[in-house]
Specification:
The protein is an alpha+beta fold. It has eleven helices and ten strands. The protein folds into two domains: 10-100; 119-353, BirA Bifunctional Protein, domain 2, CATH 3.30.930.10. A hairpin with a 6-residue loop joins strand 7 and strand 8 (286-287).
């Protein structure tokens, strides 16, 4: 027959001593790190209170319920003390931080990192400034367009193969309704302007455009700028003179060779692509007189069908239009090697390539006056 004295029992006095020691250690914790150490010592995997739980399996069945309740009460007391002390220590830490971070407003302001304008924003401002000096007004339009303004009015009839070149984002529409699109170019603003403003018209149109295309040299969202002139006397010579003066002013080069090559766009006739002189010696691209050429933009005389689609008489009115990618010319001017970095939201990149907020482009002071570089 077994000896009753050999059966393990829970010593409540020992449990009370363990709890008292844990509470004392919690009360003495001077910071959150000390408090966490006290928690581990009492309630951790090998903590003093946790060790008492291991006795339950060896107790007699009639003792386990009462012993379990006593140990749980002990754990609750320790946990409650930990929570209360944590609130006190967090409040003390916050008060200490607020006291240490006070600012004497009578002292000069500390040096801080100055925010910078994105190169895209700066480039748009430069373009608008240059063409503004030529008498162009700023025009804008919606990012979501209908088929007429984005394609049909621009001489892209239904089924026209040039529509396939645009990789269009089509949006959902109600049953029976025409699907709207994210505009694939800023040309719809030309249509809206001709429909709402009587000639003479001279507008510059920067904005976001969207195409389902993404790789090292393309992004689904990018920026374009287009120009439009409509009157009774404008001809191809005016177009060439306007664009030659623009590239010289934008790239800040007094001597910049330029050539125009025949091309095709549905909305202009005749159409041309404009190249600027460059050098690629030693693997480095440098703009100027270098014996090589770089395509920079597309342009042409506005097609009579486009003028007619806008409610104007092509026998009376004519004009020219041009368009270019803003990221492309920004990369050329500021030496930015990768298109994708424009959209990375990297503050370090923006600090290097960005511009101070008050560096307003001007043909008098220089487009890059006071910039980041």
């Amino acid at each position: 027959m077994s000896d009753p004295a050999a059966v393990p029992t829970l010593d409540l006095a020992v449990l009370d001593q363990i709890v008292a020691a844990a509470l004392a250690e919690i009360a003495a914790a001077g910071d959150l790190a000390d408090l966490d150490a006290a928690r581990v010592a009492a309630l951790g995997k090998k903590g003093s209170v946790t060790e008492q739980m291991k006795l339950l399996g060896s107790l007699a069945p009639d003792q386990r319920k009462a012993a379990g309740a006593a140990i749980n009460q002990a754990k609750d007391r320790v946990a409650a003390a930990l929570d209360a002390r944590k609130l006190v220590l967090e409040a003390e830490a916050l008060s200490a931080r607020l006291a240490a971070e006070t600012v004497d407003l009578s002292l000069p302001a500390p040096a801080v990192q100055v925010g910078r304008l994105h190169p895209i924003s700066q480039t748009i401002d430069e373009i608008v400034e240059i063409f503004g000096e030529m008498g162009f007004s700023l025009a804008e339009g919606p990012d979501i367009e209908d088929d007429f303004h984005n394609f049909t009015a621009l001489n892209f009839p239904p089924g026209h193969p040039a529509r396939e070149m645009h990789d269009t984002f089509y949006l959902s529409a109600a049953e029976g309704a025409e699907r709207p699109v994210l505009r694939t170019h800023t040309s719809p603003v030309q249509i809206r302007t001709m429909q709402s403003v009587p000639p003479p018209i001279r507008v510059i149109i920067p904005g976001r455009t969207f195409r389902s295309d993404s790789d090292q040299t393309h992004t689904p969202m990018f920026h374009q700028v287009e120009g439009l002139v409509i009157d009774e006397a404008t001809h191809m010579g005016h177009l060439k003179g306007c664009l030659i003066e623009f590239v010289k002013a934008f790239f800040e080069l007094d001597v910049l060779p330029v050539r125009f090559r025949p091309s095709f766009f549905p909305f202009t006739e005749p159409s041309a692509e404009m190249d600027i002189g460059c050098s690629r010696k030693g693997g480095e691209l440098k703009l100027g007189d270098g014996g090589d050429w770089l395509e920079i933009l597309g342009c042409g005389m506005v097609h009579p069908n486009v003028i007619r689609n806008c409610g104007l008489d092509p026998q009376r009115y004519q004009g020219f239009a041009f368009g270019m990618g803003i990221e492309r010319i920004a990369m050329l001017k500021y030496g930015i090697p990768d298109l994708r970095t424009f959209f990375d939201s990297d503050v370090r990149w923006l600090t290097h390539y960005g511009f101070l907020p008050f560096d307003v482009p001007s043909l008098v002071t220089g487009a890059t006056n006071g910039g980041a570089r």
